[in-house]
Amino acid sequence: MKYQAIIWDLGGVLIDWNPLYVFDENYFTSEEERRFFFEQVCTNEWNENQDAGYPIARATEERIALFPEWEKPIRDYYGRWKEMLRGEHPETVQLFRRLKQVPALRHYALTNWSAETFPIALERFDFLHWFDGRVVSGEEKTRKPFPEFYQILLQRYHLNPSEALFIDDNLRNVKAAESLGIESIHFISPQQLKEELMRRGFGSHYVHSDS
User: Fold this and answer.
1) What is the pLDDT of residues 62-115, one digit of tens each?
2) pTM for the complete prediction?
3) Least C-beta-crowded within 10 Å: which of 118, 123, 135, 154?
4) Domain 5-16+87-207: which CATH class?
């Protein structure tokens, strides 16, 4: 086994988080409204600013000042954030559980997540306490895909990039890891992840066992 560590993304891989659980087809009066909201008002880039440590309350008020007619959905973005946190992805969490049995293999979380909301996830999901270490963007004031964020984890836990495997559902983040010499898997589904792990030498008793 060439790997000393697996580095896991959380949202989209182990945890099911999606704003559309709040902003569904019944929230806005039209699909055009919803598209405008996510493309112009509460964008991914805006959310990632909070993931990198920008205060949620300040970000919310600043956005309302720019888009006062959108005040309710802007407030609901973080006001109803817990409803966006649907639950764990059970197949991936079970795979994580089995991979923890691989001798001498360590596991780390590298996540873009606001420091203000991450404690909610820590309380809700026991498996977040299984890691040998975590690096949370909101606590470090930087995030994926910036190289310094990956370097924080590598240096803090004394990891050799060539001996680590990174798993993330965002291709942008995968490419950033690969540029640092970290072999990566672009997560699509639990089954696809199992196949990728088998291809990299993980035994079927770790990947497919029900134990």
Assistant:
1) 999 999 999 999 999 999 999 999 999 999 999 999 999 999 999 999 999 999
2) 0.94
3) 123
4) alpha beta
Q: What is the 3-state secondary structure (H, E, C) of the chain?
A: CCCCEEEECCECCCEEECHHHCCCCCCCCCHHHHHHHHHHHCCHHHHHHHHCCCCHHHHHHHHHHHCHHHHHHHHHHHHCHHHHEEEECHHHHHHHHHHCCCCCCEEEEEECCCCCCHHHHHHHCHHHHCCCEEEEHHHHCCCCCCHHHHHHHHHHCCCCHHHEEEEECCHHHHHHHHHCCCEEEECCCHHHHHHHHHHCCCCHHHHCCCC
- Cα–Cα separations (whole angstroms), residue 9 to 57, 58, 175, 207: 26, 27, 14, 18
Any idea which residue has 């990198």 for tokens? 52
Lookup: tokens for 117: 């909301």
Distance set, CA 190 to CA 13, 55, 129, 140, 175 (Å): 8, 34, 21, 29, 20
Cα dihedral value 143, 109, 14, 47, nearest 10: -20
Q: How many CA atoms lie within 13 A of 88 on its CB side?
A: 17
